[in-house]
């Protein structure tokens, strides 16, 4: 197992990935009080403090471990803001939804059944994709995340964003065009 997975400085590269997941899963009402960057910083701080407790052997396991920490932080935020008692069903639900979004992203990037060597490339691409998503205009970023990472249909996204299905289709088209262009440019540079 590579010591690089336990390198506290190396965890910072997952910030855009975690911010993307937090943005998707945090309730809009929370984001006015506590931004996704705050919850991600708390998650990374906790991960750095407990990096020696990480028992995984691969980058996908590390991302899963980070998602678990993020999910716990979101659940705690939910509980603190609502003063509810801990609800293990809600905690599991958030963890499962974070994992589903992450799996959709990884599947999207991997295409059909990656080989072990492609798994490494997928891990790197997950981070690059999260960074590229961060740079999209808000509407495009939300539409792409809701459609591709949450699996929502155009009409559902339109309802969330208060836009017509045609407007959502335009946001998706422009967002995907920008992502493809940026990722292609990054590939040429690498």
Automatic annotation (TrEMBL):
GO terms for biological process: DNA-templated transcription initiation. Signal peptide: none annotated. Keywords: Sigma factor, Transcription, Transcription regulation. GO terms for molecular function: DNA binding; sigma factor activity. Residues 129-179 form the RNA polymerase sigma factor 70 region 4 type domain. Belongs to the sigma-70 factor family. ECF subfamily. This is RNA polymerase sigma factor CnrH. It comes from Roseimaritima multifibrata. The gene is cnrH_2.
């Amino acid at each position: 197992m590579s010591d690089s997975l336990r390198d506290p400085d190396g965890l910072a590269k997952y910030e855009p990935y975690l911010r993307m997941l937090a943005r998707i899963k945090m309730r809009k009402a929370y984001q006015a009080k506590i931004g996704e960057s705050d919850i991600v910083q708390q998650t990374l701080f906790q991960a750095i403090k407990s990096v020696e407790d990480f028992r995984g052997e691969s980058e996908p396991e590390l991302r899963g471990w980070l998602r678990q920490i993020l999910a716990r932080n979101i659940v705690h935020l939910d509980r603190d803001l609502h003063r509810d008692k801990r609800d293990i069903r809600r905690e599991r639900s958030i963890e499962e939804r974070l994992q589903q979004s992450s799996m959709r992203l990884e599947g999207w990037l991997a295409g059909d059944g990656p080989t072990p060597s492609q798994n490494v490339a997928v891990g790197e691409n997950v981070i690059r994709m999260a960074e590229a998503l961060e740079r999209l205009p808000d509407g495009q970023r939300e539409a792409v995340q809701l459609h591709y990472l949450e699996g929502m249909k155009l009409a559902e996204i339109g309802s969330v964003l208060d836009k017509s299905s045609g407007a959502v289709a335009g946001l998706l088209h422009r967002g995907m065009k920008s992502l493809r262009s940026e990722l292609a440019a990054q590939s040429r540079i690498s």
